[in-house]
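Reopening this one. Same input as before:
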Amino acid sequence: MDARETSSKRILVIKLGALGDVIQALGPMNAIRKNHSNDHITLMTTKAFGELLDTANVSDDIIIDKRPKSLDLIGWLGLRRTLRNGEFDRVYDLQTSSRSNRYAQLFWPGPYPEWSGIVSGCSHPHSNPDRDDMHTIERQTEQLLATGISAVPSPDLAPFVRDVSHLKLPPSYCMIAPGGAQHRQDKRWQTLRYREVVQRLDQSPTSPVLCGGPEELKLCTQIAQGCQNVRNLAGQTSLVDLVNVAKGAQFALGNDNGPMHIAATANTKSFVLYSHASDPALCAQRGQDVTIIRRESLDDLSVDDVMASISKAGGS
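Same output, byte for byte:
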């Protein structure tokens, strides 16, 4: 079946996380939406990204996956019922993880939908043996090509534009995103060094605005200590708000994390810090003006190095 057939079908798209991956999947999601313009599209995601993806207008409805744990039999049975009741003709698995592969098994004993992904025996496999060595964007573009979708646009943040005057942002500011996954400390630059950067910027015409989730409020509060002009928004923004904060920034600085994917996609001048713990060839932030600053260990990255990169690129 070609993806552009006009008969009405029921389509399921799976994208559970994480934030950076969700942002980079917006292009593929829009390609699926365009190629199934006459079909009903359901998107499965997690609670953290429900509002964001609902605003993106890439589906007709959304299923929030509660991600049942291995021994949660009731949870798995409920998920199986939801999937089977959806009567889906095709599934686009943009997660391609062991979890989403397991979801394919929940359709047993059939009927099974057509499946785009890496499940053994699926109808539209992404069978490139080098797929794990591809950047996320190229990998998903090639995956969709196997279904007849040949044009995948760049991620579009236009649906998220909204007024954020309630955040009381400075007239000229830079976005600082010092957080990241708690269990990946080797991807995070030292708090004290972020504090020194923010202290230097605090006296410049471009005021620093600290961004992060509620779990990063303590971190951002520590970084903001002693500053007069810094704005600490940690825990105060939705993801849609964060898109607009990023779009209005003169530049953005942060670790390899989701907010920096938003900033880069917004085509804000972005400076992203990488260690050995992640490979920019596979997951780098994409945008018109992205500078990757990489050290084997971020402990070897000095404040002067970062400030020099920002200055050289005209960020401050």
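So the earlier flakiness isn't reproducible anymore. For the record, Residues 160-312 form a domain with the Rossmann fold fold (CATH 3.40.50.2000).
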